[in-house]
Amino acid sequence: MSDTLTQHLPEVPYATPHLSSKREQLVRASDHLWRVQDAAGSIKGHLRLVADPHGLRYRAERLHLATGAFRLIGEFWRADDAVQALRNG
Q: What are the residue ranges of helices labelled H in the chain?
């Protein structure tokens, strides 16, 4: 996967993606970023909306506290798939 193909999204807040599972909820962290929390309120990771030449993608990420940087878990076409990767990873 190449970052050179990723385009920039306009700086407007997008609607929170709908998840089919009630196991997690999304809490907005910025215009294109949500925290993925389980029912107990624990943060499982982050869901980021990114532009792709073929449409919008959902990036599953985890914050690495030592560096303060996000680590990529994967990019998916569906928000549910990205959240599942955070749940199972």
A: 79-88
Query: Residue 53 falls within a domain, yes or no?
Result: yes
Query: Looking at the 3D structure of the chain, how many domains does it have?
Result: 1
Cα(51)–Cα(89) distance, integer angstroms: 24
Ramachandran class of 79: left when φ > 0, alpha when ψ lies in -120 to 50, beta otherwise: alpha
Could you report the per-residue pLDDT of 18-68, keeping only the tens digit for each?
999 899 999 999 989 999 999 999 999 999 999 899 999 999 999 999 999
How many angstroms separate the CA atoms of 89 and 74, rounded?
A: 11
